[in-house]
Design brief:
Shape: globular
CATH topology of the largest domain: Rossmann fold
Strand content: 15-25%
Number of domains: 2
Number of strands: 14
Distance between the termini: 31 Å
CATH class of the largest domain: Alpha Beta
Largest sheet: 5 strands, parallel
Radius of gyration: 22 Å
Structural class: alpha/beta
Length: 409
C-alpha cells in the first residue's frame, strides 16, 4: 500500500530542540533523545468513513513530532497502518451494500487526499492489515507455542497474564479496563476465557466474512492489536521512540499491543513514550463515526476552505486537550491565516530570528502549538503596526511556519 506525496520541509538556520513530551505510561514528561533516526509508529484509520476533524487533529500532532525531529537534523522513520479489515468496516459495507474491499480502497484514497492537502508528512511504510497477514500468522503461532496464547472454539486469544508489564501503559484498574474493553471491540463476557480482558489474536473464519489461510491457526483473520504489533516490529523493532494515536487508543489497543510485543520478544518497553492526542467534540459530544457527528476534511475542502486554515484551527488547540469544533474556531483560523499572509507579503519586516527560536521552544515543550501561534501573531501584529527594515524577515517567518507548523503561507 502506498502513502501520499511529501511536501517539502524548508531547512532553517540554527538547531532545533530535543522534544519533551507527555508519556501516558509514566503520567509525566519525558525528554526524547533518539539516535540519528527517530522512530515513530502512529495507528491509522479503519477506512469506512474518512477523514473527520478528530482524525486530522491526531495526525497533526504526530506531524509536529516529526517536524521537531527534522529540525534537530535527524531523520525520521515513520510507520502507519490501515485497518482495512475489521468489524466496523464489514458492517458499513453490508449496510451500504458495497464490497468491503471497494469501500476500504475508496476511503483510504480519500484519506490520502486529505493528508496531502493538510501537508501531513507521509509515513515511509503505510501498511494495510490485509497485506500484513503473512507476518501476523507466525507471531500468533509463536505466542501460542510460548504459552502466551490459547484456543477457544477455534479462536486464538492472548493471555494478558503472560506479560508482567500488562497495565503499565494505561495504568487503569481491572474494572475500568473491563468496561473499556466492552466498549471498544473486546468481548470480556465471553465464557471460557482465562481472563475477561484477554484479547483475540486470530478470529476463526465466520460464514459470509472474509478469511485467510492461517497455517496452523486455520482460516480466519487477525485481531486488531496484533496487526499493529506485526507491522511495528517488522519495520521499527522494539524500543522505538513514540507510539502514537488518539487518547481512545490507550486502552485496549496500545496496552494490548505493548503486551503482545513484550511477550513475543521478552524485551521492555515496546515504545519509549506513549503519546496520545485529545478528542474533538461537536455539539457537546465526542466526534465519532458511531455517533455520526462528524465534520469531514474533504467536505470543508469541497466548500472552498483553505486547508491551511483547517490546519491552523487544529494548531490552535494543544494536542492533548479535548476541544470542540465550532464555526467560530474555523473563522478564527481563517482570520489568522489572512493576517499572517498579509504580514509575510511585505518586502521587509521586524527581525525574525528570535521568533524562530520562540516557535522551536514552544514545540519542544510538549508540542505547545498555541504558544507557537501566539508568537507568530505577535510578529504579525508588529509588522502591521510598525513594519521593519529586515529584508529577509518575511521569508524567514514564512519558511519557519512551513517547516515547523506545516502551514504554507
Amino acid at each position: 500500500m502506498h502513502a501520499w506525496p511529501a511536501s517539502e520541509v524548508p531547512a532553517l538556520p540554527g538547531q532545533g530542540r530535543d522534544l519533551r513530551i507527555h508519556d501516558t505510561a509514566t503520567g509525566g514528561p519525558v525528554i526524547l533523545d533518539p539516535g540519528p533516526v527517530a522512530r515513530i509508529y502512529v495507528c491509522g484509520i479503519t477506512p469506512y468513513d474518512a477523514t473527520h476533524i478528530g482524525h486530522a487533529a491526531t495526525y497533526n500532532a504526530f506531524d509536529l513530532v516529526q517536524r521537531v525531529w527534522l529540525d534537530t537534523k535527524r531523520q525520521v522513520h515513520y510507520v502507519q497502518n490501515v485497518t482495512d479489515v475489521d468489524d466496523p468496516l464489514l458492517e458499513r459495507a453490508q449496510r451500504d451494500d458495497i464490497d468491503w474491499v471497494a469501500l476500504a480502497e475508496k476511503e483510504t484514497a480519500l484519506f490520502r487526499e486529505d493528508m496531502t492537502a493538510l501537508r501531513m508528512l507521509p509515513p515511509q511504510q503505510y501498511i494495510g492489515a490485509v497485506e500484513a497477514i503473512p507476518g501476523i500468522v507466525p507471531l500468533v503461532e509463536r505466542l501460542r507455542e510460548a504459552g502466551a496464547a490459547y484456543e477457544l472454539e477455534g479462536d486464538i486469544y492472548f493471555s494478558v497474564e503472560s506479560d508482567p508489564h500488562f497495565g503499565e501503559v494505561s495504568r487503569l484498574d481491572a474494572a475500568a479496563m473491563r468496561l473499556l474493553s466492552a466498549e471498544r471491540g473486546g468481548d470480556p463476557d465471553r465464557p471460557g476465557k482465562k481472563n475477561p480482558l484477554d484479547p483475540m489474536l486470530w478470529m476463526a473464519a465466520r460464514a459470509g466474512e472474509p478469511s485467510w489461510d492461517g497455517a496452523s491457526l486455520g482460516r480466519g483473520r487477525p485481531g486488531w492489536h496484533i496487526e499493529c504489533v506485526a507491522i511495528a516490529l517488522d519495520h521499527l523493532g522494539m524500543g522505538f521512540d513514540v507510539q502514537g494515536g488518539g487518547s481512545d487508543l490507550v486502552f485496549p489497543h496500545h496496552e494490548m499491543g505493548a503486551s503482545h510485543a513484550q511477550a513475543l520478544t521478552g524485551e521492555f518497553p515496546m515504545a519509549k513514550a506513549y503519546v496520545h492526542a485529545g478528542m474533538v467534540a461537536l455539539n457537546g459530544e465526542k466526534m465519532s463515526k458511531s455517533k455520526g457527528n462528524l465534520v469531514f476534511v474533504s467536505q470543508l475542502r469541497r466548500d472552498g476552505v483553505d486547508p491551511a486554515a483547517i490546519r491552523l484551527a487544529l494548531l490552535a488547540h494543544h494536542y492533548r486537550a479535548d476541544w470542540e469544533w465550532t464555526g467560530q474556531v474555523l473563522q478564527d483560523a481563517l482570520a489568522r491565516l489572512d493576517r499572517w499572509r498579509a504580514a509575510v507579503s511585505r518586502p521587509d519586516g521586524p527581525p525574525a530570528d528570535a521568533l524562530v527560536e520562540e516557535i522551536r521552544e514552544a514545540l519542544a515543550a510538549d508540542l505547545d502549538a498555541p504558544a507557537a501561534l501566539a508568537a507568530v501573531d505577535r510578529w504579525a501584529a508588529l509588522q502591521q503596526e510598525r513594519g521593519g527594515t529586515d529584508e529577509g524577515a518575511p521569508g524567514v517567518v514564512s519558511r519557519a511556519v512551513d517547516a515547523l507548523l506545516g502551514v504554507a503561507l
